[in-house]
Amino acid sequence: MIRPGEIAPDFELPSAFNNQVGRVRLSRVDAEVIVLFFYPHDFSFVCPTEVLGFHQELDAFGSQRCKLLGVSVDDVETHLRWARELGGVGYPLLADVGGAVARDYGCFDEQEGVALRATFILDANRSVLYTVASPVNVGRSVSETLRVVCALRTGRLCPADWTPGEQPGPAGSKF
Amino acid sequence: MATLKAEQKKQRVERLSSVREFVFGVQDGVLTTAGVLFGLSGAVSGRLEVILAALASTAAGAMSMGAGAYLGTRAESEVIRGELDRMRRATQSEPYVIQEELLGSLAAEGLSRETSYRVVKLLSSSPKLLLATVEEKVYGLGGAMLGNPAADGLVMGAAFLVGALVPLLPFVLISNQRVGLAAALVTTAGALFAVGYFVGWLADSGRRWPSALRFLLIALGAASIGYLVGLAISPLGATAGP
User: Fold this and answer.
1) SS3 of chain A: helix, strand, coil, percent, to 5
2) In a domain, B2, yes or no
3) CA distance readout (Å), B227 to B55, B178, B218, B222
4) Structural domain span for residue A148
5) Is residue A3 part of a domain?
Protein backbone atom coordinates (compact mmCIF):
# COMPACT_ATOMS: atom_id res chain seq x y z
CA MET A 1 0.00 0.00 0.00
CA ILE A 2 1.28 3.45 -0.83
CA ARG A 3 2.51 5.41 2.17
CA PRO A 4 2.50 8.98 3.47
CA GLY A 5 5.01 11.08 1.57
CA GLU A 6 4.59 9.22 -1.71
CA ILE A 7 2.80 10.64 -4.73
CA ALA A 8 -0.53 8.91 -5.28
CA PRO A 9 -0.82 7.29 -8.73
CA ASP A 10 -2.97 9.31 -11.08
CA PHE A 11 -5.95 7.64 -12.73
CA GLU A 12 -9.07 8.37 -14.72
CA LEU A 13 -12.23 6.38 -14.00
CA PRO A 14 -15.90 6.47 -14.97
CA SER A 15 -17.96 8.09 -12.25
CA ALA A 16 -21.53 8.26 -11.06
CA PHE A 17 -22.51 11.60 -9.59
CA ASN A 18 -25.74 13.57 -9.51
CA ASN A 19 -27.49 10.71 -11.27
CA GLN A 20 -25.18 11.10 -14.27
CA VAL A 21 -22.25 9.20 -15.73
CA GLY A 22 -18.99 11.11 -16.11
CA ARG A 23 -15.25 10.64 -15.78
CA VAL A 24 -12.92 11.75 -13.01
CA ARG A 25 -9.18 12.23 -13.36
CA LEU A 26 -7.53 12.44 -9.96
CA SER A 27 -4.97 15.03 -11.02
CA ARG A 28 -7.76 17.34 -12.17
CA VAL A 29 -9.76 17.30 -8.95
CA ASP A 30 -9.82 20.86 -7.70
CA ALA A 31 -9.38 20.60 -3.93
CA GLU A 32 -6.83 21.35 -1.27
CA VAL A 33 -7.42 17.97 0.33
CA ILE A 34 -8.86 14.83 -1.25
CA VAL A 35 -10.25 11.90 0.69
CA LEU A 36 -10.04 8.91 -1.64
CA PHE A 37 -11.73 5.95 -0.05
CA PHE A 38 -12.04 2.42 -1.41
CA TYR A 39 -14.87 0.13 -0.35
CA PRO A 40 -15.66 -3.47 -1.36
CA HIS A 41 -19.05 -3.36 -3.03
CA ASP A 42 -22.23 -1.51 -3.79
CA PHE A 43 -25.38 -3.19 -2.56
CA SER A 44 -24.04 -4.38 0.74
CA PHE A 45 -25.01 -3.77 4.36
CA VAL A 46 -21.73 -2.43 5.76
CA CYS A 47 -20.61 -0.19 2.90
CA PRO A 48 -23.70 2.08 2.96
CA THR A 49 -22.95 3.00 6.57
CA GLU A 50 -19.66 4.44 5.27
CA VAL A 51 -20.92 5.85 1.98
CA LEU A 52 -23.84 7.55 3.72
CA GLY A 53 -21.64 8.53 6.66
CA PHE A 54 -19.34 10.47 4.33
CA HIS A 55 -22.39 11.92 2.56
CA GLN A 56 -23.81 13.18 5.84
CA GLU A 57 -20.53 14.93 6.67
CA LEU A 58 -20.14 16.55 3.23
CA ASP A 59 -20.46 20.06 4.62
CA ALA A 60 -17.90 19.40 7.32
CA PHE A 61 -15.42 18.04 4.77
CA GLY A 62 -16.26 20.91 2.41
CA SER A 63 -15.49 23.44 5.12
CA GLN A 64 -11.95 22.00 5.13
CA ARG A 65 -11.77 22.49 1.32
CA CYS A 66 -11.78 18.76 1.05
CA LYS A 67 -13.43 16.68 -1.64
CA LEU A 68 -14.47 13.07 -1.39
CA LEU A 69 -14.11 10.26 -3.92
CA GLY A 70 -15.50 6.76 -3.32
CA VAL A 71 -14.13 3.83 -5.33
CA SER A 72 -15.26 0.22 -5.71
CA VAL A 73 -15.01 -2.51 -8.34
CA ASP A 74 -18.67 -2.07 -9.34
CA ASP A 75 -19.46 -0.62 -12.76
CA VAL A 76 -20.81 2.87 -13.14
CA GLU A 77 -24.39 1.76 -13.85
CA THR A 78 -24.41 -0.17 -10.60
CA HIS A 79 -23.06 2.93 -8.83
CA LEU A 80 -25.94 4.95 -10.26
CA ARG A 81 -28.54 2.44 -9.05
CA TRP A 82 -26.81 2.15 -5.67
CA ALA A 83 -26.71 5.93 -5.23
CA ARG A 84 -30.43 6.09 -6.07
CA GLU A 85 -31.09 3.25 -3.61
CA LEU A 86 -29.35 5.30 -0.90
CA GLY A 87 -31.35 8.41 -1.73
CA GLY A 88 -28.46 10.19 -3.43
CA VAL A 89 -24.75 10.47 -2.69
CA GLY A 90 -23.20 13.93 -2.79
CA TYR A 91 -19.79 12.97 -4.17
CA PRO A 92 -18.62 10.86 -7.11
CA LEU A 93 -18.55 7.09 -6.90
CA LEU A 94 -15.81 5.83 -9.20
CA ALA A 95 -15.98 2.54 -11.12
CA ASP A 96 -12.70 0.65 -10.77
CA VAL A 97 -13.93 -2.47 -12.59
CA GLY A 98 -11.25 -5.16 -12.30
CA GLY A 99 -9.54 -3.30 -9.46
CA ALA A 100 -6.56 -1.90 -11.42
CA VAL A 101 -6.51 1.35 -9.43
CA ALA A 102 -6.95 -0.48 -6.13
CA ARG A 103 -3.96 -2.63 -7.09
CA ASP A 104 -1.91 0.49 -7.91
CA TYR A 105 -2.70 1.78 -4.44
CA GLY A 106 -1.89 -1.60 -2.89
CA CYS A 107 -5.31 -2.11 -1.36
CA PHE A 108 -6.81 -4.86 -3.54
CA ASP A 109 -7.87 -8.11 -1.90
CA GLU A 110 -7.02 -10.66 -4.61
CA GLN A 111 -8.81 -13.47 -2.84
CA GLU A 112 -12.11 -11.60 -2.55
CA GLY A 113 -11.68 -9.68 -5.80
CA VAL A 114 -12.57 -6.38 -4.12
CA ALA A 115 -10.79 -3.41 -2.59
CA LEU A 116 -10.07 -3.31 1.12
CA ARG A 117 -11.65 -0.51 3.13
CA ALA A 118 -8.70 1.78 2.51
CA THR A 119 -8.66 5.56 2.91
CA PHE A 120 -6.04 7.87 1.41
CA ILE A 121 -5.91 11.54 2.31
CA LEU A 122 -4.05 13.50 -0.37
CA ASP A 123 -3.05 17.12 -0.71
CA ALA A 124 -3.58 19.23 -3.83
CA ASN A 125 -0.38 17.81 -5.36
CA ARG A 126 -1.50 14.18 -4.82
CA SER A 127 1.06 13.79 -2.09
CA VAL A 128 -0.17 11.16 0.36
CA LEU A 129 -0.75 12.66 3.82
CA TYR A 130 -2.43 9.76 5.59
CA THR A 131 -3.49 6.18 4.88
CA VAL A 132 -5.50 3.60 6.76
CA ALA A 133 -6.96 0.25 5.71
CA SER A 134 -9.19 -2.29 7.39
CA PRO A 135 -10.42 -5.71 6.33
CA VAL A 136 -13.60 -5.86 4.30
CA ASN A 137 -15.74 -6.87 7.28
CA VAL A 138 -14.80 -3.89 9.49
CA GLY A 139 -16.26 -0.51 8.64
CA ARG A 140 -14.15 2.61 9.01
CA SER A 141 -14.91 5.69 11.09
CA VAL A 142 -16.07 8.72 9.11
CA SER A 143 -15.65 10.96 12.16
CA GLU A 144 -12.05 9.80 12.57
CA THR A 145 -11.37 10.56 8.90
CA LEU A 146 -12.82 14.04 9.37
CA ARG A 147 -10.77 14.51 12.56
CA VAL A 148 -7.58 13.61 10.68
CA VAL A 149 -8.45 15.96 7.80
CA CYS A 150 -9.00 18.77 10.31
CA ALA A 151 -5.73 17.92 12.06
CA LEU A 152 -3.82 17.90 8.78
CA ARG A 153 -5.36 21.22 7.82
CA THR A 154 -3.98 22.87 10.96
CA GLY A 155 -0.46 22.23 9.63
CA ARG A 156 0.66 21.90 13.23
CA LEU A 157 1.45 19.24 15.76
CA CYS A 158 -1.72 17.51 16.94
CA PRO A 159 -1.44 15.15 19.90
CA ALA A 160 -3.29 11.87 20.27
CA ASP A 161 -7.06 12.23 20.41
CA TRP A 162 -6.84 15.84 19.36
CA THR A 163 -10.22 17.08 18.23
CA PRO A 164 -11.24 20.10 16.14
CA GLY A 165 -11.64 23.14 18.37
CA GLU A 166 -8.75 22.21 20.64
CA GLN A 167 -5.57 24.24 20.48
CA PRO A 168 -3.04 22.37 18.32
CA GLY A 169 0.66 22.10 19.26
CA PRO A 170 3.34 24.56 18.24
CA ALA A 171 4.03 25.22 14.56
CA GLY A 172 7.29 23.84 13.22
CA SER A 173 7.47 21.02 15.77
CA LYS A 174 7.48 17.62 14.10
CA PHE A 175 7.32 15.25 17.05
CA MET B 1 -54.96 -22.20 4.66
CA ALA B 2 -51.71 -22.00 2.77
CA THR B 3 -49.92 -21.35 6.09
CA LEU B 4 -51.57 -24.42 7.61
CA LYS B 5 -50.45 -26.56 4.69
CA ALA B 6 -46.91 -25.28 5.00
CA GLU B 7 -46.97 -26.05 8.73
CA GLN B 8 -48.27 -29.55 8.05
CA LYS B 9 -45.49 -30.11 5.53
CA LYS B 10 -42.94 -28.95 8.07
CA GLN B 11 -44.34 -31.30 10.71
CA ARG B 12 -44.27 -34.17 8.22
CA VAL B 13 -40.61 -33.53 7.45
CA GLU B 14 -39.85 -33.37 11.19
CA ARG B 15 -41.63 -36.70 11.72
CA LEU B 16 -39.79 -38.23 8.80
CA SER B 17 -36.51 -37.23 10.40
CA SER B 18 -37.19 -40.10 12.87
CA VAL B 19 -36.98 -42.48 9.93
CA ARG B 20 -33.23 -42.43 10.28
CA GLU B 21 -33.51 -43.82 13.83
CA PHE B 22 -36.15 -46.36 12.79
CA VAL B 23 -34.25 -47.65 9.77
CA PHE B 24 -30.93 -47.66 11.59
CA GLY B 25 -32.50 -49.47 14.57
CA VAL B 26 -34.31 -52.14 12.53
CA GLN B 27 -31.35 -52.72 10.25
CA ASP B 28 -28.94 -52.97 13.16
CA GLY B 29 -31.29 -55.23 15.14
CA VAL B 30 -31.74 -57.59 12.21
CA LEU B 31 -28.09 -57.67 11.20
CA THR B 32 -26.62 -57.89 14.70
CA THR B 33 -28.92 -60.70 15.74
CA ALA B 34 -28.56 -62.55 12.46
CA GLY B 35 -24.79 -62.13 12.78
CA VAL B 36 -24.85 -63.63 16.29
CA LEU B 37 -27.07 -66.53 15.16
CA PHE B 38 -25.02 -67.40 12.10
CA GLY B 39 -21.66 -66.65 13.69
CA LEU B 40 -22.30 -68.69 16.85
CA SER B 41 -23.94 -71.49 14.90
CA GLY B 42 -20.71 -71.76 13.01
CA ALA B 43 -18.64 -71.69 16.20
CA VAL B 44 -20.64 -73.71 18.74
CA SER B 45 -23.04 -76.57 18.34
CA GLY B 46 -25.52 -75.97 21.20
CA ARG B 47 -28.78 -74.41 19.97
CA LEU B 48 -29.73 -73.12 23.45
CA GLU B 49 -26.37 -71.39 23.82
CA VAL B 50 -26.92 -69.65 20.52
CA ILE B 51 -30.41 -68.51 21.57
CA LEU B 52 -29.21 -67.24 24.94
CA ALA B 53 -26.34 -65.35 23.32
CA ALA B 54 -28.73 -63.84 20.76
CA LEU B 55 -31.17 -62.78 23.53
CA ALA B 56 -28.36 -61.18 25.54
CA SER B 57 -27.10 -59.46 22.43
CA THR B 58 -30.63 -58.20 21.65
CA ALA B 59 -31.17 -56.78 25.15
CA ALA B 60 -27.75 -55.14 25.26
CA GLY B 61 -28.09 -53.86 21.70
CA ALA B 62 -31.52 -52.32 22.24
CA MET B 63 -30.37 -50.54 25.41
CA SER B 64 -27.13 -49.43 23.84
CA MET B 65 -28.70 -48.19 20.62
CA GLY B 66 -31.52 -46.40 22.47
CA ALA B 67 -29.13 -44.72 24.88
CA GLY B 68 -26.75 -43.86 22.05
CA ALA B 69 -29.52 -42.28 19.99
CA TYR B 70 -30.74 -40.31 23.03
CA LEU B 71 -27.29 -39.01 23.91
CA GLY B 72 -26.34 -38.37 20.30
CA THR B 73 -29.49 -36.40 19.51
CA ARG B 74 -29.23 -34.49 22.76
CA ALA B 75 -25.60 -33.53 22.12
CA GLU B 76 -26.36 -32.55 18.54
CA SER B 77 -29.36 -30.45 19.60
CA GLU B 78 -27.34 -28.69 22.29
CA VAL B 79 -24.59 -27.81 19.84
CA ILE B 80 -27.09 -26.56 17.25
CA ARG B 81 -29.07 -24.58 19.83
CA GLY B 82 -25.84 -22.98 21.06
CA GLU B 83 -24.94 -21.97 17.52
CA LEU B 84 -28.42 -20.57 16.92
CA ASP B 85 -28.31 -18.61 20.18
CA ARG B 86 -24.96 -17.13 19.23
CA MET B 87 -26.35 -16.13 15.85
CA ARG B 88 -29.47 -14.57 17.42
CA ARG B 89 -27.33 -12.49 19.77
CA ALA B 90 -25.18 -11.40 16.84
CA THR B 91 -28.30 -10.46 14.90
CA GLN B 92 -29.40 -8.16 17.70
CA SER B 93 -26.04 -6.49 18.24
CA GLU B 94 -24.71 -6.45 14.65
CA PRO B 95 -27.59 -7.03 12.22
CA TYR B 96 -25.55 -5.85 9.22
CA VAL B 97 -23.03 -8.66 9.72
CA ILE B 98 -25.75 -11.28 9.48
CA GLN B 99 -27.33 -9.46 6.55
CA GLU B 100 -23.98 -9.39 4.78
CA GLU B 101 -23.45 -13.11 5.39
CA LEU B 102 -26.88 -13.93 3.97
CA LEU B 103 -26.25 -11.65 1.00
CA GLY B 104 -22.96 -13.43 0.29
CA SER B 105 -24.66 -16.81 0.60
CA LEU B 106 -27.45 -15.89 -1.84
CA ALA B 107 -24.95 -14.39 -4.28
CA ALA B 108 -22.86 -17.57 -4.08
CA GLU B 109 -25.95 -19.57 -5.05
CA GLY B 110 -26.37 -17.60 -8.25
CA LEU B 111 -28.40 -14.48 -7.48
CA SER B 112 -26.84 -11.19 -8.58
CA ARG B 113 -25.45 -9.06 -5.78
CA GLU B 114 -28.09 -6.43 -6.37
CA THR B 115 -30.96 -8.93 -6.30
CA SER B 116 -29.47 -10.60 -3.22
CA TYR B 117 -29.32 -7.20 -1.53
CA ARG B 118 -32.97 -6.54 -2.28
CA VAL B 119 -34.01 -9.99 -1.05
CA VAL B 120 -32.10 -9.55 2.22
CA LYS B 121 -33.48 -6.05 2.66
CA LEU B 122 -37.00 -7.40 2.18
CA LEU B 123 -36.39 -10.25 4.62
CA SER B 124 -34.96 -7.77 7.12
CA SER B 125 -38.41 -6.21 7.52
CA SER B 126 -39.23 -9.34 9.55
CA PRO B 127 -36.42 -10.17 12.01
CA LYS B 128 -37.94 -13.61 12.63
CA LEU B 129 -37.96 -14.44 8.94
CA LEU B 130 -34.46 -13.05 8.49
CA LEU B 131 -33.21 -15.26 11.31
CA ALA B 132 -34.91 -18.35 9.93
CA THR B 133 -33.43 -17.73 6.49
CA VAL B 134 -29.95 -17.08 7.87
CA GLU B 135 -30.20 -20.29 9.92
CA GLU B 136 -30.90 -22.27 6.79
CA LYS B 137 -28.91 -20.50 4.07
CA VAL B 138 -25.82 -19.43 6.02
CA TYR B 139 -25.55 -22.03 8.76
CA GLY B 140 -27.33 -24.91 7.01
CA LEU B 141 -29.48 -25.49 10.09
CA GLY B 142 -33.17 -26.37 9.96
CA GLY B 143 -35.88 -26.93 12.58
CA ALA B 144 -36.03 -30.62 11.66
CA MET B 145 -32.41 -30.92 12.80
CA LEU B 146 -33.39 -30.14 16.40
CA GLY B 147 -34.45 -33.69 17.16
CA ASN B 148 -36.27 -34.96 20.24
CA PRO B 149 -33.70 -36.99 22.22
CA ALA B 150 -36.26 -39.08 24.14
CA ALA B 151 -38.28 -39.89 21.03
CA ASP B 152 -35.17 -40.72 19.05
CA GLY B 153 -33.90 -42.98 21.83
CA LEU B 154 -37.24 -44.82 22.14
CA VAL B 155 -37.64 -45.22 18.38
CA MET B 156 -34.10 -46.51 18.03
CA GLY B 157 -34.36 -48.98 20.94
CA ALA B 158 -37.80 -50.26 19.89
CA ALA B 159 -36.75 -50.55 16.26
CA PHE B 160 -33.71 -52.58 17.31
CA LEU B 161 -35.94 -54.96 19.31
CA VAL B 162 -38.35 -55.38 16.41
CA GLY B 163 -35.47 -55.96 14.03
CA ALA B 164 -33.84 -58.48 16.36
CA LEU B 165 -37.04 -60.57 16.53
CA VAL B 166 -37.02 -61.05 12.77
CA PRO B 167 -34.20 -63.64 12.65
CA LEU B 168 -34.58 -64.71 16.30
CA LEU B 169 -38.21 -65.85 16.26
CA PRO B 170 -37.91 -68.48 13.48
CA PHE B 171 -34.68 -69.77 15.02
CA VAL B 172 -36.37 -70.13 18.42
CA LEU B 173 -39.60 -71.61 17.07
CA ILE B 174 -38.01 -74.17 14.74
CA SER B 175 -36.23 -76.86 16.69
CA ASN B 176 -34.02 -78.06 13.86
CA GLN B 177 -31.00 -75.77 13.96
CA ARG B 178 -30.21 -75.91 10.25
CA VAL B 179 -33.82 -75.32 9.23
CA GLY B 180 -34.08 -72.56 11.85
CA LEU B 181 -31.00 -70.89 10.45
CA ALA B 182 -32.38 -71.11 6.91
CA ALA B 183 -35.67 -69.62 8.07
CA ALA B 184 -33.78 -66.86 9.91
CA LEU B 185 -31.87 -66.15 6.73
CA VAL B 186 -35.10 -65.88 4.73
CA THR B 187 -36.83 -63.61 7.26
CA THR B 188 -33.69 -61.47 7.62
CA ALA B 189 -33.44 -61.02 3.88
CA GLY B 190 -37.17 -60.38 3.62
CA ALA B 191 -37.19 -57.84 6.45
CA LEU B 192 -34.25 -55.89 5.06
CA PHE B 193 -35.76 -56.02 1.60
CA ALA B 194 -39.00 -54.61 3.06
CA VAL B 195 -37.16 -51.88 5.00
CA GLY B 196 -35.28 -50.88 1.85
CA TYR B 197 -38.53 -50.76 -0.10
CA PHE B 198 -40.16 -48.73 2.69
CA VAL B 199 -37.31 -46.18 2.65
CA GLY B 200 -37.60 -45.89 -1.13
CA TRP B 201 -41.34 -45.39 -0.77
CA LEU B 202 -40.85 -42.67 1.88
CA ALA B 203 -38.31 -40.87 -0.26
CA ASP B 204 -40.88 -41.03 -3.09
CA SER B 205 -37.97 -41.22 -5.43
CA GLY B 206 -39.24 -43.95 -7.74
CA ARG B 207 -36.20 -46.00 -6.68
CA ARG B 208 -37.97 -48.40 -4.33
CA TRP B 209 -36.61 -51.61 -5.86
CA PRO B 210 -32.97 -50.47 -5.98
CA SER B 211 -33.32 -49.35 -2.38
CA ALA B 212 -34.80 -52.73 -1.41
CA LEU B 213 -32.06 -54.62 -3.27
CA ARG B 214 -29.34 -52.51 -1.64
CA PHE B 215 -30.62 -53.46 1.82
CA LEU B 216 -30.90 -57.11 0.81
CA LEU B 217 -27.32 -57.25 -0.48
CA ILE B 218 -26.05 -55.65 2.71
CA ALA B 219 -27.97 -58.23 4.73
CA LEU B 220 -26.64 -61.20 2.81
CA GLY B 221 -23.12 -59.78 2.91
CA ALA B 222 -23.22 -59.21 6.67
CA ALA B 223 -24.73 -62.61 7.38
CA SER B 224 -22.18 -64.36 5.17
CA ILE B 225 -19.27 -62.56 6.80
CA GLY B 226 -20.63 -63.38 10.27
CA TYR B 227 -20.97 -67.04 9.40
CA LEU B 228 -17.46 -67.19 7.88
CA VAL B 229 -15.95 -65.50 10.93
CA GLY B 230 -17.75 -68.02 13.12
CA LEU B 231 -16.33 -70.86 11.08
CA ALA B 232 -12.86 -69.35 11.28
CA ILE B 233 -12.90 -69.04 15.07
CA SER B 234 -14.69 -72.35 15.76
CA PRO B 235 -11.38 -74.22 16.33
CA LEU B 236 -10.72 -71.82 19.23
CA GLY B 237 -14.02 -72.87 20.85
CA ALA B 238 -13.10 -76.53 20.43
CA THR B 239 -9.66 -76.15 22.08
CA ALA B 240 -10.74 -73.82 24.93
CA GLY B 241 -10.91 -75.78 28.17
CA PRO B 242 -12.83 -74.96 31.40
Assistant:
1) 25, 25, 45
2) no
3) 18, 13, 14, 9
4) 12-154
5) no
Total domains, chain A? 1
Residue A46 lies in a domain: yes
Closest-CA residue to A13 (of A87, A86, A97, A137) = A97
- A46-97 pLDDT, tens digit per residue, is 777 889 999 999 999 999 999 999 999 999 999 999 999 999 999 999 999 9
Residues from B in contact with A at Cβ < 8 Å: 95-97, 99-100, 103, 113-114, 116-117, 120
Q: Cα Rg for chain B, rounded, in angstroms?
A: 25
Question: Could you tell me if residue A113 is inside a domain?
Answer: yes
- Contact flag A45-B114 (C-beta cutoff 8 Å): no
A47 is catalytic: yes
Residues 6+ positions from B191 with CB-CB distance below 8 Å: B26, B30, B163, B166
Name the domain count of chain B. 1
pLDDT of residue B189: 86
Q: Is residue B215 a contact partner of residue B27, using CB atoms and an 8 Å limit?
A: yes
Residue B52 lies in a domain: yes
pTM over the 0.80 mark: no
